[in-house]
Write a structure and sequence with these properties.
Distance between the termini of chain A: 56 Å
Strand content of chain B: 25-35%
Radius of gyration of chain B: 17 Å
CATH topology of chain B: Rossmann fold
Number of helices of chain B: 10
CATH architecture of chain A: Orthogonal Bundle
Oligomer: heterodimer
Largest sheet of chain A: 2 strands, antiparallel
Helix content of chain B: 25-40%
CATH superfamily of chain B: P-loop containing nucleotide triphosphate hydrolases
Structural class of chain B: alpha/beta
Order of helices and strands of chain A: HHHHEHEEHHHHEHHH
Number of helices of chain A: 12
Strand order of the largest sheet of chain A: 1-4
Radius of gyration of chain A: 19 Å
Number of strands of chain B: 10
Distance between the termini of chain B: 38 Å
Number of domains of chain B: 1
CATH architecture of chain B: 3-Layer(aba) Sandwich
Number of strands of chain A: 4
CATH topology of chain A: ABC transporter involved in vitamin B12 uptake, BtuC
CATH class of chain B: Alpha Beta
Largest interface: A-B, 16 and 24 residues
Shape of chain B: globular
Chain lengths: 297, 236
């Protein structure tokens, strides 16, 4: 393999890692607040991609207009999902909430098949994004450069919100001690709704940018990325935003580099995530950046 | 004035509070003492709406608190310092205090209150950029009280503030409770350290397995034989 080819793979790994990171953040934020794995997160990702698709094809919106609209609608959907599927079970045993999450996931997937149709659709990738850019000997699609840049920007905004704003402070407080936050007058429902909105917004962005790169939509398109990004969040240390980013990039790099160096393993590419998960859980069960949490009584 | 009227709480099949009546007059320190599991914490939690009651009611200056969400109760100035401090370990001391003022919009007054908290607990000011999780137990209790003061409480309820603290720190916490009360804040105090609590309190209630078994002025209860035997470890 030549160095040029390596750089080519690196560029791809960087954009795939960015997408994984964006989606993994949604899992980790919701888990941090509610100790809940939102199994429907991958399906929210799918929804974001479809909404952008219809924005462009049915309503003839410019791609960026469709993107903004789809992201906003998906965020609202995420807030609604929490309201309907999770809030009524807030005081129920964890297992009930988990089952509700799995049910929500199946429901969204199958509604997707009914409404969007089961046959895959080609995403109309705008020409500006699919154009090939040459950087020296390396040629990459514009979208492969746009994705990491955009992901970095989003991450910076998110970290600012979490660490510097009052809402972010309330989120951090709720994630460590929900009842104590309530005793300070924090409206816990609002904080949870905000978290779901932000997570779904990131998933929609991830889904749309995913479709720019892999322009093939199907109602089950969120299942594998959803599963992998859940793994990325666990690898990084679930509940920790930087951990989710690290896990996402790690997964993207390992996946693409293994294929690059060992092309014979290409057929197993979806298995790498699980192998990595097993290894990390054996070596450091709390994830790379996770801290041991004592169970509250 | 806080008025509790025939308050009942069930946990599953357990009748934790069996219709208690209790009053906390404005400007006073009232204490609720009793053994482990008597229902002291449950009483406070149901006042602030963390625990749902199965009967009776709680009212504050004539307004019913029962059924209100916790944030609305906090906004009315009825605030609980929970058992075991429960400061936010991953937030700095400063952020913990800011969170106490979460519902308040009066920025100038919040700043003044922060200065007052630092006046009461200079140690907190020295450590204001430190994560609360790195503080000692005594400092965390100071922070828990300071954080509650930032909510601008009119009734401050404290659940076992002396638990697990060194005697010197306990004395300091009780001095602070007196001071806060002198500044016009009504106090409802729960303690296993019945002697210290009754010494500081104007009025005391004794709770046993979900019922108030007797009540009276702090000094009277201190002198009462039944209280001395059961809760102060004296007599026989």
């Amino acid at each position: 393999m030549t160095f040029t080819l390596f750089l080519q793979h690196l560029a791809n790994a960087l954009s795939l890692g960015s997408l994984y990171a964006l989606i993994a953040i949604g899992y980790t934020m919701v888990y941090g607040i509610l100790r809940l794995i939102n199994f429907a997160h991958g399906d929210v990702f799918m929804l974001g991609a479809y909404l952008a698709f219809y924005g462009i094809t049915m309503f003839s919106l410019p791609w960026w207009g469709a993107l903004v609209l789809a992201v906003v609608v998906t965020a609202v959907f995420g807030v609604g999902l929490e309201r309907v599927a999770y809030r009524p079970l807030r005081d129920s045993p964890k297992i009930s909430v988990m089952i509700s999450a799995i049910g929500a996931s199946f429901l969204i997937e199958n509604l997707g098949i009914v409404i969007f149709g089961g046959r895959p659709k080609g995403f109309p990738v705008p020409e500006v994004l699919s154009r090939v850019i040459r950087l020296g000997a390396v040629s990459v699609q514009a979208v492969s450069l746009l994705i990491p840049a955009f992901a970095a920007l989003i991450l910076a905004v998110l970290l600012w919100v979490v660490n510097r704003t009052k809402t972010g402070m309330a989120m951090r407080a709720v994630s460590t001690d929900l009842d104590a936050a309530r005793l300070m007058g924090v409206d816990v429902n609002k904080v949870i709704a905000f978290t779901f909105g932000a997570g779904s917004l990131l998933a929609a962005l991830g889904g749309i940018m995913w479709s720019f790169k892999y322009p093939n939509l199907s109602p089950l398109m969120g299942v594998m990325p959803g599963l992998k990004c859940f793994i990325a969040a666990v690898i990084g240390g679930i509940g920790n935003i930087m951990g989710a980013v690290l896990g996402g990039f790690l997964l993207g790099f390992i996946e693409l580099m293994t294929i690059a160096f060992l092309p014979d393993l290409t057929g197993y590419r979806d298995a790498f995530a699980f192998v990595l998960l097993i290894v990390v859980l054996l070596v450091k069960p709390t994830g790379l950046l996770g801290k041991r949490q004592s169970e509250k009584v | 004035m806080l008025t509790i009227d025939k308050l009942s709480v069930h946990y599953g099949g357990i009748h934790a509070l069996q219709g208690i009546d209790l009053e906390v007059p404005d400007g006073k320190i009232v204490t609720l003492i009793g053994a482990n599991g008597a229902g002291k914490s449950t009483t406070l939690k149901s006042i602030v709406g963390l625990v749902k009651n199965s009967g009776g009611s709680v009212s504050w200056n004539g307004e019913t608190l029962t059924g209100l969400p916790t944030k609305d109760i906090v906004e009315r100035g009825v605030v609980l310092v929970p058992e075991g401090r429960r400061v936010f370990p991953n937030l700095t001391v400063d952020e913990n205090l800011t969170l106490g003022a979460y519902t308040r919009k009066d920025k100038a007054e919040v700043a003044a209150d922060r200065a007052r908290v630092f006046g009461l607990f200079p140690r907190l000011e020295e450590r204001k950029r430190q994560k609360a999780g790195t503080l000692s137990g005594g400092e965390q209790q100071m922070l828990a009280v300071g954080r509650a003061l930032m909510t601008k409480p009119r009734l401050l309820m404290m659940d076992e503030p002396s638990l697990g603290l060194a005697p010197l720190v306990v004395k300091m916490i009780f001095d602070i409770i007196r001071e806060i009360n002198k500044a016009g804040v009504t106090v409802l105090l729960i303690e296993q350290n019945a002697k210290a609590a009754l010494e500081v309190a104007d009025y005391g209630y004794v709770l046993e397995t979900g019922r108030i078994i007797f009540h009276g002025k702090g000094r009277e209860l201190l002198a009462d034989d039944r209280v001395r035997k059961a809760y102060l470890g004296e007599g026989e």
